[in-house]
Amino acid sequence: VTAQVLAWESHPEFAVKRDTRSFSDLDHIVRVLADADAATNRWRDKARIRFNHKVHLVPEGIPVPPGHPEFHEGRTLKKLACQDCHVPDAAGEAMQPVRFDAHCAPCHRLEFSFAQAPGGPLPHGDPALAKAVLRQRLTDYVLAHPEVLHEQTAEPSILPTVPPKAPAELQQKAADADAARWKWVESQLKELCGRIQEPSPLLVDPSAGQSPTAPGRRIQTGCAYCHQIRESDAGNWSVLTPNIPQRWMPMARFSHRSHAMVACQKCHYDSGQGQEPLVPDRSSDTADLMMPGIQVCRECHTVSGRNSHPGSAASRCVDCHRYHGRSHDRIRSWTGIQGENE
Ligand code: HEC
Ligand code: HEC
Ligand code: HEC
Ligand code: HEC
Ligand code: HEC
Ligand code: HEC
Questions:
Q1: Alpha-carbon distance 299 to 311, whole Å?
Q2: How does pLDDT run across 299-327, given as a tens digit for each residue?
């Protein structure tokens, strides 16, 4: 919108809800957050993370795995609420970023049933760190179980009695053993890293009639279950930065605390433009966008320019736009997006 906004009554629709065809401005901040969808002329969230609100918000609850604090024998369902993942910041304004460790890990532990690298969940984040932890575990394992080397080379594991060795020969033997361990660790590591990347479904399926605690029925969640993976070579991979926006309306201020009396879905709703209306508990695609349009605000923020007009919530420009002289870069930094999502 290039035209000046003179009054709340003639205020334009918020960028993220405008018809994408009316966007000639290639430099508008909304492009940092979303992609224009030619089929619907709507904006689509371009965060590179797989998340499905609908699956997690089923009214009867979602199964929790063994090891979850609320798990008990048999079938355990947990009813998730919006507030389980979305918590306002200390000022009560924007929602804090969703965090894997706090909001996903209780159910999606990065635990892989690798018999030769035991030790619980892997650290989440930098793949190089997960790899380093695995390498350490494999090294510990081969030191405690030297017999795995013989299994691999098919050498007899009980050697015949040999005559005493000269020191040089002993040194050579130690070096050979180190090399053999190193070779074993690296080959195992390569295989396990391949398995860590794979998307593997949660192995908790109460409807299949199997006990979730039965051996072998441990959760396996590869990085690719939630992430887009970039692989440079086998065993060396990185995930694309998820770039989940921290602010969807960075050019205005908003306070979730001041609206605690309003249900989330009253604002986080999309009319669907002739299609099914969309609310979070019916959204099955990360790309779905459910930000409020201006008509919702107008139900309460009715009269322009008054701060305490009876019956109208604050509607002066400064009630919603506090910052002046903001540079494009500054606004951009509030979105929390790093680089371009190619
Ligand atoms: C299990 C965690 C979880 C729960 C529960 C959850 N969300 Fe989310 N929500 C996320 C994640 C992760 C994202 C970022 C990825 C995305 O956009 O889907 C997100 C993004 C959003 C967004 C911003 C993007 C958009 O689609 O407009 C809104 C709004 C939102 N959630 C509202 C809700 C509401 C309302 C509820 C309750 C009905 C809810 N969420 C429940 C995890 C959750
Ligand atoms: C209370 C447990 C629980 C929490 C918390 C949870 N999940 Fe899930 N999630 C599940 C279960 C169970 C399924 C399998 C549901 C099914 O297939 O019906 C699942 C499915 C998924 C799927 C596959 C969905 C699809 O489209 O098939 C993704 C991706 C996912 N979760 C990501 C996340 C992320 C990201 C978070 C944190 C923001 C999260 N989950 C938090 C239990 C949980
Ligand atoms: C169940 C879903 C899920 C799985 C499985 C998962 N992640 Fe994530 N990951 C997330 C979510 C959600 C975020 C964004 C929130 C955060 O940073 O905690 C994220 C963020 C990240 C980031 C960015 C962190 C940052 O500071 O920007 C990296 C890197 C990452 N994950 C790596 C991995 C690797 C490597 C694996 C596999 C070993 C993995 N993830 C498995 C859900 C998942
Ligand atoms: C009165 C309308 C309204 C209500 C009610 C509301 N929100 Fe929002 N929400 C907004 C607006 C406006 C934004 C954009 C704010 C911004 O970017 O500064 C937003 C942003 C968000 C975001 C994206 C992160 C961010 O801060 O931009 C999430 C997630 C979210 N809301 C979740 C919720 C949940 C969960 C509830 C219920 C507990 C809720 N909202 C209630 C209007 C509302
Ligand atoms: C009740 C709250 C509210 C009031 C009052 C309000 N605005 Fe806004 N305004 C918003 C929100 C929310 C956005 C969307 C911000 C975004 O997309 O980052 C916005 C966006 C804008 C934009 C950017 C439009 C675009 O996308 O290019 C301008 C310019 C603007 N407002 C000017 C004004 C002026 C001038 C006034 C006073 C006459 C005013 N606003 C009053 C909430 C308000
Ligand atoms: C159900 C009524 C209602 C709806 C809908 C509503 N508001 Fe409000 N809003 C209020 C009330 C009440 C206050 C607090 C009293 C006041 O400041 O006048 C308020 C305060 C605010 C404030 C000042 C925040 C503060 O406390 O400092 C902003 C900014 C704001 N609203 C923006 C919005 C936007 C943007 C929307 C639409 C997405 C919206 N509101 C929708 C009732 C509503």
A1: 10
A2: 999 877 655 566 778 888 888 997 666 78
Q: In this model, does residue 228 exceed pLDDT 60?
A: yes
For 220, the token pair is 């396996």
14 lines ligand 4 (CB under 6 A): no
Backbone angles phi, psi at 323, to 5 degrees: -95, 135
95 lines ligand 4 (CB under 6 A): yes
> Taking a C-beta distance cutoff of 8 angstroms, is the pair 117, 192 a contact?
yes
| Backbone φ, ψ for residue 171 (5° rounding) | -60, -45
pLDDT in tens, 70-104: 887 766 889 999 999 999 999 999 999 999 999 99
Burial of 332 (0-12, 13-18, 19+ CB in 10 A): middle
Ligand of minimum distance to the alpha carbon of 263: 4
Residue 113 reports pLDDT greater than 60: yes
- Residue 42 phi, psi (nearest 5): -115, 165
Give whole-number Cα distances, 138 to 20, 119, 132, 185, in Å. Answer: 53, 10, 10, 6
The CA 280 to ligand 1 mean position distance, Å, reads 7
Given a contact cutoff of 8 angstroms between Cβ atoms, the answer to whether 82 and 96 are in contact is no
Q: Which residues contact 20 (CB under 8 A, 6 or more apart)?
A: 36, 37, 38, 41, 42, 43
What pLDDT sits at residue 3?
60
